[in-house]
Amino acid sequence: MSTTRPVLRLTALAGAAALTLAATAAPASAETEVPEPDSFTSAFTVMATPDTIINPDGEAVPGEEGATGTFTFRVNSDEEIICYDITLQGVTGEYESPAKTATHIHAAPAGQGGPPRIAFPNPEGDDSSRTSSGCLQGPFTTGVEADGADTGDGFTLADLEADPASFSADTHTAEFVAGAVRGQLTEIPVGGVDTGAGGLATTTEAAGTGATAAALTGVALLTVVGAAGAVALRRKA
Asked: Membrane-spanning residues where (predicted)?
């Protein structure tokens, strides 16, 4: 008597059980690192400083004196992709956060606290300068739970585009757990604007030290470059 069919059936059942377990297990990270998309629906900048930190009790507390952060975000809400360029200056020590990383966008208006919605890879470098860049595609998870759900659950980049002033970006360290630096999102043009010096600012410049001085004077600059040249803004109807 052949035993081939029972063995195959048991193998199939084991495979189905494994797939069921994989489907029901909560992933450690829902978002995916992806290439930069061909276009963006919006862009934002953040000038993060240590005098804007709010602790979980809603109280203002000091961040790391002398530290700054420049965050540039480019968003394609149709594809649920956010590209980031982050530079931290003078942020020292180890990162620390109950979330899966210590660098976030929070749903938090100025002067208020709020839950993280996106967790970004922590910038790398030394205590003088740390940087990171890349693109993430949702759905997003943070590793922080509230009311039994991850604080990234249900969040979309269209929510961010609808009210960017209600979102902040920050980074947390072991010494400054509430935040070393923080700032509110400010919308900037996609496609770049004239610098007044005979050219357009680039994304690299916006993420570097030149952007720090520009942000301090309220100037937000960005150029999005595609394979064939400058990529035009595709605004949503």
From this structure: 213-233
